[in-house]
């Protein structure tokens, strides 16, 4: 006698629906289960009864099919009666339906612009702002207590952080500053040549580096270098429970870990900005010399264009940028999870947040200086 293949029959009436299963649910000759699931999704019954007494044998595809039927009914508030299922199959189904499934990405996209989703997003943004302000207050207080006797801040940690944020950063700052100065000089010279005023390229390079590019490019490099390092270091310490151990010893993690890093970057950043300004001006002089401008002409125009106001504007930006970079990196690291993936996310968050802070702060300071006539 030929083997009887598996069968699946769905009957729907006013009281609910009945799904009758029979035969061996194993192999390749299975019924069209997708059509059954689509029927249930189209008109979900309040109760779906499964009659599987005649099922002789089954593999993993049968519980997957029943789980899809269960989800189709539960989406409309219905339920699935699995009392007649074999013991093993019923246990698998109970295990799979013990918790509600996470919302699908498709449902999330459909609900992205709903009122509830908008309220949730605004609520999360508000909590993020409050957490940032709270961390800012704790960081400022920790930095202030650094110079008070009994502080948890160690000067040896501050020295190590100063070296990491200062001398260790000189090679990359040197490269980027010279190239930025050369780029400014080249772009300016190309335009000024049309008017026979190539000599004024020194003014363009000097003012551009002193007021804007020296501080901004140094800050971007430090955000990707030092800010990310802060997030990775503190995030790894969170994962290893070192931060909890410091708190257990009665020490403040903000004073012990965050304050040295923040103070080190605030101290070294203005010096790096001055260093970047000098190298950028030298890079501009290299390009100017290649375009026929003598060193004497370049230095003479540079002397006329130089102003301590321009220099102090750039240094002031450097101090603010350093504080924002250290704040973003430290906060991302201190709030990181306790696994490798969380440390990676914290590092990415630190760099992205710091760059956003830099752009917003730079735009705000430029508008302020313009209004003040500085």
TrEMBL record:
GO terms for molecular function: phospholipid transporter activity. It comes from the Bacteria. Keywords: Membrane, Transmembrane, Transmembrane helix. The chain crosses the membrane at residues 169-189, 262-288, 308-329, 350-369. InterPro entries: Permease_MalE. Coiled coil: none annotated. GO terms for cellular component: ATP-binding cassette (ABC) transporter complex. This is Permease component of ABC-type transport system. It comes from Pseudohaliea rubra DSM 19751.
């Amino acid at each position: 006698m030929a083997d009887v293949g598996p069968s699946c029959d769905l009957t729907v009436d006013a009281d609910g629906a009945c799904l009758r299963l029979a035969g061996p649910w194993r192999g390749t000759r299975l019924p069209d289960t997708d059509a059954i699931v689509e029927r249930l999704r189209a008109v979900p019954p309040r109760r779906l009864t499964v009659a599987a007494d005649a099922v002789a044998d089954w593999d993993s595809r049968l519980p997957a099919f029943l789980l899809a039927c269960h989800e189709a009914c539960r989406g409309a508030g219905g339920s699935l009666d699995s009392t007649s299922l074999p013991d093993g199959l019923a246990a698998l189904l109970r295990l799979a339906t013990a918790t509600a499934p996470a919302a699908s990405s498709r449902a999330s996209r459909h609900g992205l612009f709903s009122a509830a989703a908008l309220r949730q997003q605004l609520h999360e943004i508000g909590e993020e702002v409050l957490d940032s302000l709270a961390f800012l207050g704790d960081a400022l207080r920790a930095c202030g207590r650094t110079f008070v006797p009994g502080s948890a801040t160690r000067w040896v940690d501050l020295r190590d952080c100063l070296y990491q944020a200062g001398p260790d950063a000189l090679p990359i700052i040197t490269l980027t500053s010279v190239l930025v100065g050369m780029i400014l000089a080249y772009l300016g010279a190309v335009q000024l040549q049309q008017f026979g005023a190539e000599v004024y390229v020194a003014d363009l390079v000097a003012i551009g580096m002193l007021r804007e590019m020296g501080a901004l490019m140094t800050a971007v490099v430090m955000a990707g270098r030092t800010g990310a390092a802060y997030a990775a270091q503190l995030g790894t310490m969170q994962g290893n429970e070192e931060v909890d151990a410091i708190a257990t010893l009665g020490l403040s993690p903000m004073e012990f870990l965050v304050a040295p890093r923040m103070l080190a970057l605030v101290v070294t950043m203005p010096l790096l900005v001055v260093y970047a300004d000098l190298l950028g001006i030298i890079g501009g002089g290299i390009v100017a010399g290649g375009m026929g401008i003598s060193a004497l002409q370049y230095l003479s125009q540079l002397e006329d264009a130089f102003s301590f106001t321009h220099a102090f504007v750039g240094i002031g930006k450097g101090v603010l940028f350093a504080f924002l970079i250290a704040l973003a990196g430290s906060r991302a690291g201190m709030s990181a999870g306790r696994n490798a993936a969380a440390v990676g996310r914290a590092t990415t968050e630190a760099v992205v947040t710091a760059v956003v802070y830099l752009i917003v702060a730079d735009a705000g300071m430029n508008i302020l200086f313009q209004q003040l006539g500085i």
